Task: structure prediction
Amino acid sequence: MIHDDVFGSPGRRQALTIAVLVIVAVLMLRLYQLQLLFHVELDKKSEENSVRALIKDPVRGYMYDRYGRLMVDVGPSYSITLVPAEFEKRNTPFLSSILQVDSSYLEDRISKARQYSPFLPTRIKRDVDMKTLAAIEENLPLLRGISYQIESKRMYPTAARAPHLFGYRREISDAQLSDAGEYYRPGDLIGVSGLEARYELPLRGHKGFEYVSVNSKGQIIGSFEDGKRDITAKEGENLLLCIDGGLQAFAESLMTTYSGAIVAMDPTDGGILAFVSKPDYDPAIMSGVTPAAEWAGLQTNPQKPLFNRASLTKYPPGSTFKMVLAAAALEEGIIDERYRIQCTGGFRFGNRVFKDLHVHGSVNVVEAIQKSCNVFFYQLMLKVGFEKWTEYGRRFGFGQPTNTDTGEETAGLLPSVEYYDSRYGKGKWTQGFLVSLAIGQGEVGVSPLQMVRYTAALANGGIVYRPHAVGFVQRSEDSTPVMVPRDSTIVGLSPQTLQLIRDGMQRVVHAPGGTGSLAKIPGVVSAGKTGTAENPHGQDHAWYVGFAPYENPKIAVVVMLENSGFGGAKAAPLAGLVMEKFLFGELKRYQPKAVQKSVAGGAPNAPR
Amino acid sequence: MLDYLKEYFDFRGLMLCLGLVVVGLLSVYSATFDVGAAAPFKKQLIWAGVGLVALFAMAFIPIRTLQRLSLPLYIFNLGLLLIVLVIGERISGSKSWFGFGGASGQPSLGGQPSEFMKVTVVLALAAFLARTSISLSNPKHFLLAVAIVLVPMALVLAQPDLGTSIVFFAMLLPVLYWAGSSNFVLVAILAPIIAAAGALFGTLTFLITLIVSGALLYVTRQNRFAAAVAFAVTLAVGLSVQAVYERLPAYQQKRISTFLDPGSDQKGAGYNVYQSKVAIGSGGFFGKGYLQGTQTQLNFIPEQWTDFIFCVPGEEFGFVGASVVIALFAGLLLHGIRVAGLSKNKFASAAAIGITGIFVTHVLVNIGMSMGLLPVIGIPLPFLSYGGSALIANMSMVGLLMNFYANRKEH
Result:
């Protein structure tokens, strides 16, 4: 060591050689580590690096009515996209003026897009009009990173609007994005109400992927492996609806001046024929981009057009509910058709008098339904008892969700001993509460959708169906219709019981003194029941439930008009028109002018 | 005849050099053939031809002439560096270019004096150390030797070109070592650098490097006072690292911090290294095939035909190809040391070590950076990286090695 500090000593030569060998060994070890040990992982990264998947949105499924008429269509929509890495910031004011959005909105969208991917196009404005598109097109050379893509949006080619039935899609929220799994990406649309929400999965189809090679700037430089690995988008499945498009449009037209609902059902399987909630809105405004002002207008409208009155409401059903009590009394053998009471036009219970509209004299159960005699049902309620009434109400499907496929619904409210005990405390409520319930007043709350399947059950001999607006889902690969399951429960009514109740309902329409004669359909025997529900907030709600023809019923219908007065006067005529329209495809009788005008295009065409 | 050639012609050096030049041309072609219609490849090919001429010129200039020319060349080159600093064109943020007629900042014909400075500094240092009157144990002589390197190094650093200045410094140490400088002095120079590097990583590594430096100083000490001073300097440098770090330009700070935590910024400063590692790693054992590297062909690696050229053989020829490249370098480096050992001429011997030192620094720093072992310091890989000045300078240095080998018996 001491003598090696001379020029070029062998020891130092050795030391330098070893130093070089150590350096080479370190490099070789690292090379071995990267290329052999970490190869698989880094190779995967390299593939992800150079290959990008461009998402191809599938065409969403169509909706056809029961006669094959296209009701919910898909049309082109142009979205403006932006690649953050290529977009020049100084163009922001220019772009915002073309798109007619605030610069701050644009900056927000761009920063969100950047988080998602700086190199991939992200939508910054959806469904722009042709004028905007043309302006963008003209200025494409100036606006680096800006492009547009064609997407699909909903179109509604028939006169039917049915926004509450069809529902709509909105841009997926962050919460949904974390819940809904890996399929969705920011900016995707997802069904949030009605059939669009309930059938999101079959309707949406499956996204396709186009693999492209990109360079380090993310610029697409060609297809990857000539597109061999591309996955074509799988188009959405079509919904074959039970809805009669013509009937739907007609029913909507009947309701133009009302607030309320009309729901019609096929009593043989629970298929929904018409589903009307009014006031409503044009579903087309929800199909692309809903302007904020329009959306706010819908939300703050005192008429609540967004509110689904057909299935989200809890109305007192009034006298239309009387058949529940009649069924309980007859089926439990508490009364038969020979049981009669004297209607004196009032009923004293305790120190309170419950009034009837008329003095009906001696009535049995059939006549009590026909004439809607309150006194009869007041007394009957006390004979039958609360628990039986609740039980039969439940058997008809009240107080529980219908499990409809039409989207949002409420369970309604079917009072029971337990309910009153918990609400008012044990012993703190009296039999007096029951007297109101006997005629469908008080706390009982039902939706028109619940009412229609109750009516359908009376029509079909006691089968309570799960309501469904979709009959079949058409598989996209081979167009085979796949039936939506028809669930049902049995009320459990004897033919005799049914016969008496149906006889009463038939008399409502056809016998003198029946309350629903305005529901009469020319040439067809039908049955029904009127209801006039007192309402603490305003005028009475008008109800009519009915079915036709009397033998082998093909349609059950519920008409519910908020604050419109007598059911027999207001609701019954509309129900008759709806049933006639469905049974004949047109109105045979004289058409009121208002109706004639607004039904244009509503008649069914030959099935496709 | 053959025996004569074997005796007086350095086939090994030439073959190793030509092998590397060929790999380099293939790599540059692969990295650039899609962008500029192979223009960089054609330029590099021309430069390789020029380099070959320079190589043979250097191989046959008499050593005495070289030795005599070394000082004037050194001074001339220093002057060029100064001029570049004042009027040089800016390329990638540093003034290191001489543009002749390049009016628009695109130097069509030009050169980087700092590349040639490497050669002239080595020759000047070697010539200085070869003087019989010089002894490195004489502090005055020692400092003069150091100054020969530090002056051009400072000028290059002012460009600013950290990478090339590191090369100057890294070349100095083995030459001093070879010329017989005491171990203590070398340790005293190295210790502050090691401590500073340790300080960058954190307190613990700083303490470890401090202990190691202290131990080395103690083992190699000649007198206690000098050892104590050296240790104090080491401590002071280590402690002031933070302050210096804060004064560094942002891009260098980022490079350092990215190196310390490579995962921190995969799309930003760490992007190059990340992409480079992915490219090399994805090559696997046999590589993806020439011109088939997705990373290379899709231009994922910035500056891949200059500083990150090693990715190309790494990705396209895999472990096999990359090993061949490293083996060629290893062969050249060992050959350089061998030539230095064989040479009876002190000037030639020291110059051979200097040349080897330059090559080893480039190879270690460049390949180490490409594989994520070392921070990103922009120095090219000899013979492979695109760039005329460097290629010609490097081939000239191989020519010098060939010259020293052929004349190894000459005093």
